[in-house]
Design a protein that fits this description.
It contains nine helices and eight strands. It folds into two domains: 49 residues, no CATH class; 129 residues, no CATH class. With 193 residues, the protein is α+β, with helices and mostly antiparallel strands.
Amino acid sequence: MKKQPDFNLLYDVAENQAGYFTAAQAREAGFTWERLSYYVTTGKFYRIQRGIYRLVQFPASPYEDLFVACLKTGPDAVISHDSALYLYRLSDVLPSEIHVIMPRTGSRRRKGIRLHTNRTSPDEVTRREGLPITSVARTIIDGIVSGLAEEQIRQAVRKAIRQGLVNKEELLSMAARYGGRVLHIIKNSLSEA
């Protein structure tokens, strides 16, 4: 016996993702490929890309590309590095690729997505604009580790502190985990903040 489509379940999933959902998530809610196609044709769902949809009740997000990247890479994906700096509005640099941290078990290459297989602890992940994203302190540290220009790091530190997104103690604590060059750059940046 086929499972009947559960719109409430699909809505609950999509609501936590700004209205976006994957074909796999729709299947879990009882939607076959044919049913998905039918609802796209009748205007209930928008097809964003292959395997990615949005409920029509939700407006398109200005960060649609970030949602798509997270959904493509899996349920544990987290926006990070330059993309997180951009989302926090702490950098003027528009990344050419979307940076995503995912578990080491995932090793799929995706066009336009820069995958990082670093570990994140629960205190290093938050949500912004409905997206899973590294915390401000972790984002700045990842920028240092990945070689972002020191001027960009100093700018991000100044803006983050001025906007109340992070405090000096949080940055120092996170930098102390890495030590060396990371701690040195954070201390220098904080002396200017």
